[in-house]
């Protein structure tokens, strides 16, 4: 057995503790901007703290929890050396799952795993997460940065996060509130959001051989700029909607597309019909389909097709809801309706062709 290996150290094994400490110092400024009055303590503790006495104003508070990542969109960020936007993506993917049940996001923690700690890069990632938390109205109370040399390449990383929210028990949204006659309101996406990037990368980068710096006339900008467009964060818009009008359910359109995600909040006694002609998807969806020869059904199973969130509400709430969302600069439109169903309940049908 070999002993006393010359030069053996954690740094020699690829883990730089000093670089990690520098990253923490750089990110503190941004984390400080993503706080709520209930936040306790600062960055650097073993656990994030949140004052739960804020929950005493609830009669029966239900805590909601969600966790997610950004998927292979991080590969685009790494190639472009732009890292703050995927932090906002991470927040959107987590908090917009929480708000579906009517929960207000309270606090979030993140996990950043890197092949090598570049302090400025880690700080940029956390900056984006902090900015996203500020847009979502939740606190960033802590996180972890892990260096995994040998498992990830020096330029590689992945990010994940978890958040907790709260909703009053008798205000919980979901399938049990949905009724025949309800209207399906679509909230526009900012772009691809953070799903389907394995397909998009395969089609545009690998199959077509496009570079990220390529100017794409249909986009009015480069391919890289289009692919890094941050995911829209809907949580505060949805909470404002709940406060202003009667809402029965939300559906966050992520992996699986519009039909599969809307079906998750439908009871077995109803079905939804969506009219494709009520909107025109952004050019990026047409480009992926045309360049890759991807069938419409496959696109709709994989990508959001321009709808990032769906609200299901009674007819009387439609006009005030649209007015409120317009005030908040969220594109929205009536996309379909809920019908009773004796058979094939809980299903979603998309009919017609997209507007041109």
From TrEMBL:
EC number(s) on file: 6.3.3.1
Keyword tags: ATP-binding, Cytoplasm, Ligase, Nucleotide-binding, Purine biosynthesis
Residues in PurM-like N-terminal domain copies: 62-167
UniProt catalytic activity: 2-formamido-N(1)-(5-O-phospho-beta-D-ribosyl)acetamidine + ATP = 5-amino-1-(5-phospho-beta-D-ribosyl)imidazole + ADP + phosphate + H(+)
Associated pathway: Purine metabolism; IMP biosynthesis via de novo pathway; 5-amino-1-(5-phospho-D-ribosyl)imidazole from N(2)-formyl-N(1)-(5-phospho-D-ribosyl)glycinamide: step 2/2
Gene3D superfamilies (UniProt xref): PurM-like C-terminal domain, PurM-like, N-terminal domain
Domain PurM-like C-terminal: 179-344
GO molecular function (one): phosphoribosylformylglycinamidine cyclo-ligase activity
Enzyme class: ligase
Matching Pfam families: AIRS, AIRS_C
Keyword ATP-binding: yes
Main location: cytoplasm
Subcellular location: Cytoplasm
PANTHER family reported for this sequence: TRIFUNCTIONAL PURINE BIOSYNTHETIC PROTEIN ADENOSINE-3, TRIFUNCTIONAL PURINE BIOSYNTHETIC PROTEIN ADENOSINE-3-RELATED
HAMAP family named among the record's database cross-references: AIRS
Family that this chain belongs to: Belongs to the AIR synthase family.
Name by which UniProt lists this protein: Phosphoribosylformylglycinamidine cyclo-ligase
Species this protein is from: Streptomyces chisholmiae
